[in-house]
Amino acid sequence: MMNQLSTSTSPYLLQHANNPVHWQEWSEEAFAESRLRDVPIFLSVGYSACHWCHVMAHESFEDQEVADLINANFVAIKLDREERPDIDAVYMKATLALTGQGGWPMTVFMDHDGKPFFAGTYFPKTSRGGMPGFTEVLSALSEAWNERRDDIETAGSRVVEAMQQRGSYTSDGLPSDVVLEQAVSRLQVDFDERNGGFGNAPKFPPSMILEFLLREAARTRSSRALLMAERTMEAMGRGGMYDQLAGGFSRYSVDPTWTVPHFEKMLYDNALLLRVYLHWYRLTGSNFAERIVRETAEFIIRDLSTPEGGFASALDADTEGVEGKFYVWTAQEIIDVLGEVDGQWTVELLNVTEAGTFEHGYSVLQLLDGPDDALRWSRMRERLLNSRKSRVAPGRDDKIVAAWNGMAIAALAEAGALLDEPTWVESAIIAADLLIAIHLGPNGDDRLCRTSRDGKPGTNSGVLDDYGSVAEGFLALFQVTGDDEWLALSGMLLDVAIQHFSDGNGGFFDTPDDAPALVQRPQDPSDNAEPSGWFAVANAALTYSALTGLVEYREIAERALDVVGGLGARAPRACGWGLAALSAFVDGPIEIAIIGDFADPATAILRTVALATTAPGAVIAVGEPGSEVPLLRDRPLLGGQSAAYVCRAFTCQQPTVDPFELATQIGVRSGE
């Protein structure tokens, strides 16, 4: 056998294509080889922007001694967790069961049937700091496989049994707004009043929880919810986790103050946060929020767009083998670029210290206070950014992930419409066109493939969050453009999710019913760094129902949200997207139909007012009389003028041609 990764479509796997390890991709052939050779399987899981994945690769997988041990005694499978989140979820659950902690790189050893008997995360090549060396682990496990096979098989069976003992994911019925109030109260217990965010370090951006809090602030005028959301977003946007020069957020902060990030930039984080900051701006008119929206949108389009029209998955944390090297500065480096006077002013503004806020005297740039001279800061920022371009840029994982592009499409479409930036909407349309052309139906059916690269679809089938998040993106495009093709496509994707992923009890599995079997079919409603597929489908189904009037999709969303009753009050941080959907469900959501010619200024004014509504999950449709879009059907002009029709929870208000009356009906921030 030889290393077989050179033909992969995954940039992460291609990083390992020249390793002396005889890597294979996950396949039945790899399992067949393990049976034929009677050796266990070594599964290594990571992703391209993972710092410690790079470290372990350099220390062990590029090392001939380690490779010889692996090749002689194991079948080695390398997996990109972003391509196969289903497999990653199953074996992360096993890793947590075996060790009590998880993360990447994930290191799993399993038998011929995929039953894990040993797991961990990063291992150094040789023992240090209380961690066993990887060479020792390999030797010990090979010896145990050959001499104590019965013990290993028993251990693997016990792990699988433990994984299959899951709790109930349903409740007695749809939770009420009482659960939403309890969730806000529980979040307040975990809230870091000093620094923003929830819990201790490391701190991940709580994107879905922030969306829920903003919806509750709009729905109930909750000052508690708004305070938690604003303080968190202010701290994240001013700290080192936000790139103060080029825009865009890093994956998480290693400390409680949002000062030092883990420098990788993920598409899903930036898409979710773009939308959350947009909704903060829409609710309050915050100039700071608007700035973050504009810079983050430009970052996504400028730095993550691919030649094919989609958005790349991530930018690496490392450059030249050093984490954060591209982003950090010393005071002297800034002064060298800007000169003594401007440089010293900027050093103080960006909290760059002599000792450094990062490592080795370097500082992460922060903008803890607004500059006293905004124009001066704009000039300094541009000069520093131009200087930074001469540095070696972080590597880019340029594969297209369907779900993450769906999130970006929704965020850019909505932000472009609200802030009158048509190029953002156009970028969203181009990305959506790519998903249709490359990801939808590569095998001649109505299925999504999860990833593509260089315009070629990958071999991995879409999982539940691909269907939910892409449907969400298409629904946003319909509401912004009025093109009913996006509405039809979103309905088709939801139908596939309902038909092939449903568990029959109102919930969803993460993989379709015709997917190759794993030791456990993954199912988990809780959010992680991105919305769970379960809640993504619930949100999209609720929106689709409101736009089409098809009550059966509302009922599907309702049943899927049953689980929020159990999670919401007890562990709200695990179900932010479900709580956000429940907030919209309880509020209606509001349905706004605007009848008129898109080019008519009167229609445009009504549409602008509609886009500014702060009502949770509000839906908007714009079209001419006679439209076949259900929300617009049988609704005429009023006295020959463009008109708005507003309904909520199966009850409609008096139609109006007056933008001020429309603003009153739907709830628009004062001054809009």
TrEMBL record:
Residues 3-163 form the Spermatogenesis-associated protein 20-like TRX domain. GO terms for biological process: carbohydrate metabolic process. CDD domains: SSP411 (cd02955). InterPro entries: 6-hairpin_glycosidase_sf (IPR008928), Ssp411 (IPR024705), Ssp411-like_TRX (IPR004879), Thioredoxin-like_sf (IPR036249). It holds the Pfam family Thioredox_DsbH. Transmembrane segments: none annotated. Gene3D superfamilies: Glutaredoxin. This is Unannotated protein. The lineage of its organism: unclassified sequences, metagenomes, ecological metagenomes.
